[in-house]
Amino acid sequence: MYISEPQNDFIFSVLAEELGFIGCAVVVILFAIFIWRGIIIAMKAPDMFGSLLAVGITALIGLEAIINIAVVTSSMPVTGMPLPFFSYGGTSLIILLCSVRRSAKYIETEQQNMRRKPMKVIIAAAGTAGHINPGIAIANKIKSENKDAEITFIGTNRGLENDLVPRAGYNLRTIDAYGINRKISLQNIKNIIKTLKGFREAKNIVREIDPDIVIGTGGYICGPVVSAAVKNKIPSMLHESNSYPGMTVRLLSKKVDTILVGFEDAIERLPKAKHVVVTGNPTIKNVGAGALDSLGRPGGRPLQEIKQELGLKNDLPIVLVFGGSQGAKSINEALVKMIEEKLNSNYQIVWATGPKQYDAIKEELLEDNININNIINTKVLPYIYNMEEVTHIADIIVSRSGAMTITEISTIGKPAIFIPFPFATENHQEYNARVLEKAGAAKVILDKDLDAKILTETLDDMLKDKNKLMQMGENAKKLAIPDTLDRIYKEVEKLIR
Q: How much is the pLDDT for 7?
């Protein structure tokens, strides 16, 4: 090392002579920490000016330090470059320290100003209630924590979002987006062209709103919207409600910041994801869902009152059957046969046929002289509007196995028989059902195997052992995650910060 001379600034040599190797190492480490912190501050700066200010001051001090130490250690030609903070005299040192403090203070002030601004959130949700309702549940949670939050949904002009989102009180923007069929067809090509247009529309909306975070709750709409967020370096998050993630979520998994999943089984199917968190599936009624008051009443209504309203007896078990909001033809066919053969003498059935199938079933039963409004041990309805109440009085639930259905059944702790929809994308309904079957909380009958005989045998087998039935309900409840929305909001806060 050079020894300090009057015309050169070799203060690092003096430090080496006085403090030794350890002292020099400490100085180098301190400068490294300074440069690293400067980069972090620049990255977290809320605007371009703050970033450039932090980068400029960090580069000024960092480069001077690197060059000075390199010269003293004979790694570079002599330049006379001073060593920041050590070489400077009184006035220069004060100016340098003030510039560093000013940079940090500016960014700190801007960050505080940003925290005072309303949180801006975009939620991509379209198509079915299974995608839209989780988005609304997350929006409601954000609103409950940030009453001034500005939340915008992005969907299409075709799906249920056009009814559900405005009904929930949120703004909806629409773009062209379609699910891509794997079969080659003219319509599929047209849909791909329209979806490409949707990517451009999504990019424009994201730039216009400039949100703090973009959240997708599954489905093809997430492709253009979340991709726009990633390209604009906006924090992004996806929620996957099924145990087998959909194609859009799998494709975006390595690009988004965080993926929230409803089932732990989904984690292994997202090997390229940066960060995966098990949160459970959010429902609009997550808060207190499944809870009864001190008198055993859901929503304040006595269970006995609900039974009387449906014309049900107290001395027979109750089986609730439904196939989704539109009903399920295969389930309905099995139920018709059970009623015609009077196979439910030991239990009562509450059966939601689906509005579109009710009249046809009514006519079919009439052909066998059965009045749909007067069937022993059976209550047939087109649709059950107070489903949350009715699920509480049921001893067994027979249904499809969509993610939201499974979530609600687990939350209230009811044993179930699942009949997965055979044409669900990636067969995700069967994967969902198998999760509860594996936990000892449900039985699974494949749609191709379903008939009145097998359904009756499965029900009889479950109902004959009350202790086992109770244990199945407890097993279902163990899978429920009561603080789903709190977990999700915690992850939202992490990304925004």
A: 43
pLDDT at 299: 58
Would you state the pLDDT for residue 286?
43
Calpha distance 187→127 (Å, rounded): 18
Q: Coil, strand, or helix at residue 466?
A: helix
Taking Cα atoms as reference points, which of 266, 265, 235 lies closest to residue 249? 266
Q: Dig out the tokens for 72 from the structure.
A: 């003293």
Handedness of CA 132, 138, 141, 143 (dihedral sign): negative
DSSP 17-64: HHHHHHHHHHHHHHHHHHHHHHHHHHHH-SSHHHHHHHHHHHHHHHHH
Most confident of 130-134, 396-400, 403-407: 396-400
Residue 123, phi then psi, degrees to nearest 5: -120, 125
What's the CA gap between 211 and 12, in Å, rounded? Answer: 48
Kindly report the backbone phi and psi dihedral angles of residue 322, in degrees, each rounded to the nearest multiple of 5, phi listed first.
-155, 155
How far is the CA of 250 from the CAs of 202, 218, 245, 255, 428, in angstroms? 20, 10, 6, 10, 13
295 Cβ contact list (under 8 Å, min separation 6): 302
At 413, the amino acid letter reads G
Give how far Cα 468 sits from Cα of 25, 294, 414, 418, 464, Å.
68, 25, 12, 17, 9
Enumerate residues 6+ apart whose C-beta is below 8 A from 269.
244, 245, 250
Task: Check: CB of residue 157 under 8 Å from CB of residue 175.
Answer: no
Give the per-residue pLDDT at 202: 92
Handedness of CA 23, 27, 33, 37 (dihedral sign): positive
Residue 328 has pLDDT above 60, yes or no: yes
d(CA 293, CA 496) in angstroms, rounded, equals 37
Q: What is the pLDDT of residue 290?
A: 46
Here the tokens at position 264 are 């732990």
Q: Which amino acid is at 302?
A: P
Cα separation, 266 vs 261, in Å, equals: 7
Least Cα distance to 403 among 72, 132, 170, 213 occurs for 132
DSSP-derived secondary structure for 428-454: HHHHHHHHHHHTTSEEE--GGG--HHH
Q: What pTM did the predictor assign?
A: 0.70
Residue whose C-alpha is closest to residue 391's, from 244, 239, 485, 283: 283
Q: Enumerate the β-bridge partners of residue 152.
A: 122, 171
Closest CA to 212 of 91, 86, 123: 123
What is the spatial distance between Cα 166 and Cα 159, in angstroms, rounded to a whole number?
Answer: 13
Of 222, 176, 180, 220, which is closest to residue 198 (Cα–Cα)? 176
